[in-house]
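Entry for the shared binder. Reason: the reviewer on the internal report wants the predicted structure included alongside the sequence.
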Amino acid sequence: MKNKPLRIALFTGLYAPFLTGVSVAVHQRVHWLLKQGHEVFLVHPEINNQYPPQVGNRPMSGLSELQPFPNFSAFAFPTEPLILYKSLPQPLNHRHWNDTKLLKEFQPDVIIVEEAAQMKGLYAFFLQGYGRSVGSEYAKQTKTPIISVFHTDIIAYIRYYLGDIFFNLISPILPFVIKQFSETYDVNLFPSREQLAKYKKLQCQRCEYVPYQGIDCEKFHPRNICYDPIPDDKRPTILFVGRITAEKNVTQLLDIYPLIAAQIPDVHLVIVGSGPLDAEIRRRAEKFPHGVTIWGESHGKELLGWFARADIFVNPSVTENFCTTTNEALASGTPVVAAFAPSTTEQVSSGVNGFLSKPNNPQDFAENVITILKNPELKAKMTEQARPSILEFDWSACTQKFEDKLYELVNISQKVDV
């Protein structure tokens, strides 16, 4: 017998037009759940005039794609720019809006909180944010199951921004913070086994692995070479797509590039994305006017074309938690050279669909790129194996596992009416 549709309340700290992997994943998840017949109440960040004008003008899939569904409703909570990243939102404190009131009106069967740590205020070191665990008060009152969905390696981000010295000073209290935070939720989901193991050591409670972080493998495909953004450019192309931020290590690509160019003079590095370090990478790229292209943001068919066009996708970040763009590149048939990070080992198999490089080691990273570009047979083999290596993370299969987890939690709960 088919399970009856669920009433799902989904809170997210990031959503279109704020451009991150979380925003894209949340939209895809909500869209899929609606198509399965579930009723979804999406609570998402508002866009207001405190953000740069270009943020609100992005051609991203968002509310307009969801509003035709009769089983969809939404609420935009008040926000302000994140202290360290003015193009991303942070919820205003609970004095300004009430999650419990929203949930009492909707009366969900299950509550999902995506990137719950950001909602509470961990991203801003508790200087901003909602100030308490979203959804927890209503869940406790009614015994409604509530799920926290992890997207970001928050501990890695904190270490990156604070530096080793200050991080070492606060590290003794982090297990206490993580334990207290995770106990708020019935289950904390991780898309990476390695990341789950890391957070278990940090006293994360009620946590488990569910491969919910998929991509649309039909959308990201080698055939998208027909959308090649530079069809007359025959140079070997290495591509980065992502946010231009410190934790993504994008500036390190400008250290890696000349090492590659010394061996492959016509190599072309293309950096696609935007972020706080835009000005710095553009300034540094001026040293290589014919070899480095800072493209800016890319969307739609053009972006699909970039993934299929590239000879190698490069990702120097050491803070990834099952990186979406890495999967999109592999699904497009493009080998990946990535810095070693916990979850990256579950995506990139060295010598099979790309190479893993030593973290923060430009020389090793460059040598891996050179090895692929100088060996046509190896490159052809990796290209052939790239797409099959990631098909198990097709969006439909991953979201089905996520839906199964929702039903499991709902079936074992004993909801109390308010």
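Summary line for the report: The chain has 15 helices and 15 strands.
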